[in-house]
Design goal:
single chain, mainly alpha, 5-stranded antiparallel beta sheet, 20 helices, 5 strands, 60% helix, globular
């Protein structure tokens, strides 16, 4: 096929379309959509339909853009209130946990040198590099799988896992670059290396908070005449946060995630439309990123590293990840043994390790770079197949499934400027014991029932409207505490409550 803009767009459109269809089909069988996106890329590659793509630089560039968007969006969707109680354990997992995983896995890989295929032989530093590349849990995989499953986890496990996966990439990134530098130069000043590590984390965190508040101020102050331009403005701010932080020798990935946390937890104009835009954009770049990485690998090279990759994957799942988690969480007594076991299990590998594996590919001083890339790719597939498909089953087996959150059906939001509480409730026979008319419900003053859903029908109620068990009501009030108490007195246990503050 002749390379032209039309042909590139045609192939890209077909691949995106196939990815969405395959992801929809895979969801029915509990297969992670991201794994299927990888599969579509591999199928379309040089060993499949013949699309030749062999540019780690382009793959890395696409991955960097995608990670900025994914981490920022993940931060926006995370509540301060949820992560505050788990901030310390999350940080320990994201730093000490990653370091321990690297060291333990690195020594294990080095012990396998006699089993490596062909002429490929990894020294201790190269083994540590391979381990560092795979040491972090992947934010794209964790965010996607946990949220698509829609399960509620006990013991604050979901915010812990999302905080860890969103903030541990910087540690793995810096370890990867540090080990590449050591291999290239041959020596290293460990004092300077540790200082650089701490400095990058500190600068990244500080600029993440500072620039996050600056982004909120800019979005709220700039009066853009066209509302559609606000997502463009926010996207520009995201890329600026990443690039400017890197320019000042900080870690851009950490800064982007923290900036997302700040933006998502502050009052923001057009926040709902911005969130919707970034959700869709996140999925687009997840698909593009996994397709690109799938195209980059040559499936015919994977059987040569299958044996050692399976050993490494198995070791990481049952040894290095659990040891790292249990040691990192030793100071935190609130986590039960079952919770620690579950955190160990949901150590998913995904696009981030594959993106980090492109860095050795671009270094002429690392002769085994292609094998490292193939091992990382194989381990990622195993992780998504084994751990990604059992996220719900493992939580159920360990008894960590909590009370499910009620799914919102009205999909209505008020501007952030309006201080109110909006809730959806489901009526029961007990609720209507005092009368089946709307006027009989003992709701607090300044509370309005604006919509009723009965079966598939929606209507606006009046005071004399007769209600039935199973009706869903959309309620708006300016006093959420009184609303909660009235729900309890009415025996309403199934409701959602969203506050504008």
């Amino acid at each position: 096929m002749v390379i032209s803009p039309e042909n590139v767009l045609l192939v890209g459109a077909i691949l995106l379309f196939l990815s969405v269809l395959v992801g929809k089909t895979g969801a029915r069988f509990g297969v992670p959509a991201l794994l299927l996106f990888l599969g579509v890329g591999m199928l379309a590659g040089s060993d499949g339909f013949g699309i030749h793509f062999d540019s780690p630089q382009i793959a890395q560039f696409i991955g960097t853009i995608a990670l900025c968007i994914i981490l920022f969006s993940g931060g926006m969707d995370t509540s301060y209130r949820e992560i505050k109680p788990v901030l310390a354990p999350g940080v320990m997992l994201a730093t000490l946990g990653v370091l321990m995983t690297t060291v333990i896995t690195g020594f294990f890989i080095y012990s396998l040198v006699d089993f490596l295929p062909g002429d490929f032989q990894l020294g201790l530093l190269e083994s540590m590099l391979l381990a560092a590349v795979m040491s972090s849990t992947d934010s794209a995989s964790v965010f996607s799988i946990l949220r698509s499953k829609g399960i509620s986890l006990k013991e604050r496990l979901r915010p812990t896992l999302e905080l860890e996966s969103g903030s541990n990439d910087p540690m793995a990134y810096m370890l990867t670059l540090l080990l590449i530098q050591i291999i290239e130069i041959g020596t290293v000043d460990w004092g300077n290396a540790v200082l650089l590590l701490v400095m990058q984390l500190a600068i990244g965190a500080a600029l993440g908070f500072a620039l996050g508040y600056a982004v909120v101020w800019i979005i709220n102050r700039i009066d853009v005449p066209n509302e559609s331009l606000y997502p463009v403005l926010l996207l520009a701010c995201v890329f600026f946060v990443f690039a400017f932080t890197n320019l000042l020798q900080g870690n851009g990935y950490l800064a982007v995630y923290i900036a997302g946390l700040v933006v998502g937890n502050r009052r923001l104009v057009h926040k709902r439309s911005l969130t919707t835009f970034f959700d869709g954009f996140t999925w687009l770049f997840q698909i593009v990123m996994f397709l690109t990485l799938g195209l980059l690998v040559n499936p015919s090279e994977l059987p040569a590293v299958a044996g050692v990759s399976l050993l490494v994957a198995f070791f990481m799942i049952v040894v290095s990840r659990p040891i790292s988690v249990f040691v990192s969480l030793l100071p935190f007594r609130k986590f039960t043994f079952r919770a620690r076991t579950y955190i160990s299990w949901v150590g998913l590998r995904g696009a981030v390790p594959i993106i980090f594996a492109t860095y050795p590919l671009m270094s002429a001083e690392i002769p085994n770079a292609r094998m490292i890339f193939n091992v990382v790719f194989f381990v990622t597939i195993v992780s998504l197949l084994v751990q990604g498909t059992t996220v719900s089953a493992m939580a159920r087996w360990l008894g960590l499934i909590g009370k499910g959150e009620e799914k919102e059906i009205f999909n209505v939001a008020l501007p952030d400027e309006i201080k109110s509480a909006m809730s959806e409730i489901e009526l029961t026979e007990q609720t209507l014991a005092g009368g089946n008319k709307l006027m009989n419900l003992a709701l607090p003053d300044n509370t309005l029932v604006v919509m009723v859903k009965r079966d598939t029908h929606y209507f606006v109620p009046k005071g004399h409207t007769q209600l039935e068990p199973g009706d869903r009501l959309l309620v708006i009030s300016d006093n959420d505490e009184e609303l909660r108490r009235s729900y309890e007195s009415l025996g309403i246990s199934r409701y959602t409550l969203r506050k504008n503050r």
